[in-house]
């Protein structure tokens, strides 16, 4: 391989290292409340089950189950409230913007959409249960809250 080829490879590797370092910096600042990585005021975080369990013990956290009322009645995470996904855009003002909001849904997709919606509306601490109820193995209760 000639020197020009080696230079190109070195430049590409340098750029990849720089991009990786910047990405690591942007996506790994710690949140003081529950050890969650919130990247900035304009983004939300995907949360593990352990992080949600820890959040359940805090007074300044609101767990919002986005599933349909029937599914919520069958089983839901203790302490969560039910605002179905189809209603969140009309009812989001019911959620205290000074508290941490954690969304729960079937698999995480509706929670991701709702998280971004709240961030766009100016909420600062918003998270989504990674994998949703499909991955949840923690405590459950039934009935309406």
Through-space gap between termini: 69 Å
Shape: elongated
Give the mean pLDDT: 85
**Major sheet details:** 5 strands, parallel
Please summarize what this structure is:
This protein is an alpha/beta fold. The protein contains six helices and five strands. It has a five-stranded parallel β-sheet with strand order 1-5-4-2-3.
Question: What can you tell me about this protein's structure?
Answer:
With 145 residues, the protein is of the alpha/beta class. It is 39% helix and 13% strand. The chain contains six helices and five strands; from the N terminus they run H-E-H-E-H-E-H-E-H-E-H. Strands 1-5-4-2-3 form a five-stranded parallel sheet. Helix 3 links the parallel strand 2 and strand 3. The radius of gyration is 19 Å and the shape is elongated. Residues 25-41 have low confidence and may be disordered.
What labels describe this entry?
single chain; 145 residues; alpha/beta; 6 helices; 39% helix; elongated
């Amino acid at each position: 391989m000639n020197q020009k080829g080696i230079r190109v490879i070195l430049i590409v590797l340098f750029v990849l290292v720089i991009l990786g370092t910047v990405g690591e910096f942007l996506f790994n600042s710690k949140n003081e409340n529950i050890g969650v990585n919130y990247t900035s005021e304009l983004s939300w975080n995907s949360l593990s089950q352990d992080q949600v369990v820890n959040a359940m013990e805090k007074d300044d956290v609101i767990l919002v189950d986005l599933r349909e009322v029937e599914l919520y009645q069958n089983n839901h995470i203790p302490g969560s409230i039910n605002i179905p996904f189809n209603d969140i855009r009309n009812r989001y003002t019911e959620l205290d913007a000074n508290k941490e909001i954690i969304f729960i849904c079937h698999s995480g997709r509706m929670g991701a959409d709702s998280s971004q919606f709240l961030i766009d509306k100016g909420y600062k601490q918003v998270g989504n249960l990674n994998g949703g109820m499909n991955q949840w193995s923690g405590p459950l209760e039934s009935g309406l809250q």
